[in-house]
Design a protein that fits this description.
Layout (H helix, E strand, L loop, with lengths): L3 E5 L7 H13 L3 E6 L12 H13 L5 H18 L5 H13 L4 H20 L2 E2 L16 H11 L6 E2 L4 E3 L5 E3 L5 H12 L3 E6 L4 E2 L11 E2 L1 E3 H9 L10 H7 L3 E5 L8 E4 L13 E14 L9 H11 L4 E3 L6 E7 H4 L3 H12 L3 E14 L9 H11 L6 E4 L5 E7 L3 H12 L2
Parallel strand pairs: 1-2, 1-7, 2-4, 3-4, 7-11, 10-12
Antiparallel strand pairs: 5-6, 8-9, 11-12, 13-15, 13-16, 14-15, 16-18, 17-18
Length: 438
């Protein structure tokens, strides 16, 4: 029998009605034997996420304020679900324990993790499945760094009997048992960890969208759905912010060669998007897979004659960025020029110091700072098989009257990255999409 690991997001488990949908999905396929729940999300736009309320409890308790009214809201959410579904789990005792630990000064990670923990207890009781506390198997070291190989070993042992299990997402523990959380959205990571540990045939990530779209629907009207994508393509698009999946969740399943299926809890009949290590090329597939981008970048452009003969030039320039804790996004270069594309937000507090330091260490002929730039990535495994892809892209931009400020294409030919003025961000995405899709 194959193995399918399912992860359900907060909107999928926001109330009793959503729990019922999840149960139907799990029972629809006997191979779905491992499930990773998130904490309850919003039931309506003005609603609170339970994780946000738990963080609020921690802040109030730490400040010596009365957190009980906030905690009562949390308890009511869980009790309403339990009562409506007729569950038998002793939820009151679990809630009392959490309440007491918050009052006793529990840290923020412990408080936030209880959202998934309590939802896991509810779902395990509802399904009649075993509950496995993630703190038993998801391991962090003494400094709070995730330990992937030890976690894989421990999780595999916990689930070795093959019995159906509910493993709450988002958190784990150090060897001493103290709870540590991943960053927000970390239940995606837990799902991928479980999939790798049990050698799943597929990791299903259920949320409130039916997979990925080729472009942001706020910019492109009714963009086409992406039925299949490789992990490498997703990495490129995720880097530019176009993802419904936590970026770190890709690594465990990618490493194990396990495909991920993004599905919609509210539309379980929809096939969603499949993410695989490799996908065969076929002539019917679009040249591009997706378009994504970000505003708010600055380009630091350094020009110096015979730069290529000056040993250590690049190291000195990048060393300044490191000195001020600034990561670079791209490094377009020419024989006598070197550019560093950085986040405007990270550069702003120390802009003048960075420029002065670069001048001091590199003695350039000129140094220019270009602000208000957007970076847009056009990604697709089909681009390598189609001649004239770059020509189509730049022709579309030219016809739309958009000036290209930067071009960067990797040797893999998986993506073409362009830099444009922030004011041209939306128009660029629309122009590129129109050239390849419409």
């Amino acid at each position: 029998m194959g193995k399918v690991v399912t992860k359900f997001g907060g909107s999928s488990l926001a109330d009793a009605q959503q729990f019922a949908k999840v149960r139907d999905i799990l029972l629809m396929d006997s191979q779905r034997r491992y499930v990773v729940p998130s904490a309850p999300g919003r039931r309506f736009p003005e609603d609170d996420k339970v994780t946000d309320l738990l963080y609020q409890c921690h802040r109030q308790a730490s400040a010596g304020e009365d957190f009980q009214p906030t905690f009562d809201l949390i308890a009511a959410r869980y009790m309403d679900i339990a009562e409506e579904l007729g569950l038998k789990v002793d939820l009151g005792a679990a809630l009392d324990e959490v309440n007491e630990k918050i009052a006793a000064g529990a840290n923020a990670d412990y408080c936030a993790s209880r959202g998934e923990y309590l939802n896991g207890l509810l779902l395990a009781d509802y399904m009649g499945w075993r509950f496995v506390d993630a703190a038993q198997a998801v391991r962090f070291d003494d400094k709070g760094a995730f330990q992937p190989e030890l976690t894989n070993e421990l999780m595999a042992k916990c689930l070795a009997d093959g019995e159906p299990a509910v493993i709450p997402g988002f958190y784990g523990a150090k060897a001493d048992g103290s709870v540590v959380t991943f960053s927000r959205g970390g239940s995606d990571i837990t799902g991928a960890i479980v999939a790798r540990a049990v050698g799943a045939d597929v990791y299903e990530n259920w949320t409130d969208v039916s997979g990925f779209l080729m472009a942001d629907p706020r910019i492109v009207k009714n963009p086409r759905e992406i039925s299949a994508i490789t992990y490498k393509e997703l990495r490129e698009l995720s880097y530019m912010g176009a993802s419904v999946l936590h970026e770190d969740a890709m690594f465990p399943v990618h490493k194990a060669g396990i495909p991920t299926n993004i599905r919609n809890t509210n539309r379980p009949e929809h096939p969603g998007t499949i993410i695989s290590v490799n996908l065969p090329h076929n002539s019917d597939q679009p040249t591009i897979t997706g378009i994504a981008g970000h505003k708010g970048f600055t380009v630091i452009s350094v020009e110096k004659a015979m730069m290529n003969n000056e040993l250590g030039f690049g190291r000195r320039m990048l060393g300044v960025l490191e000195e001020y804790g600034i990561s670079f996004e791209h490094l377009p270069t020419g024989i006598d020029t070197m550019c560093a594309v950085v986040s405007s937000e990270s550069l702003a507090p120390c802009r003048d110091q960075v420029i002065s330091r670069i001048i001091e260490l590199t003695e350039p002929d000129t140094i220019t700072v270009h602000e208000n730039m957007s970076i847009i990535a056009t990604v697709g495994r089909g681009m390598v098989h189609n001649c004239g892809t770059a020509a189509r892209l730049f022709s579309a931009m030219s016809q739309a009257g958009i000036n290209v400020r930067m071009i960067d294409q990797g040797s893999s030919e998986l993506s073409i990255i362009v830099g444009v003025d922030d004011k041209d961000f939306e128009a660029t995405i629309q122009a590129i999409y129109g050239a390849f899709v419409l």
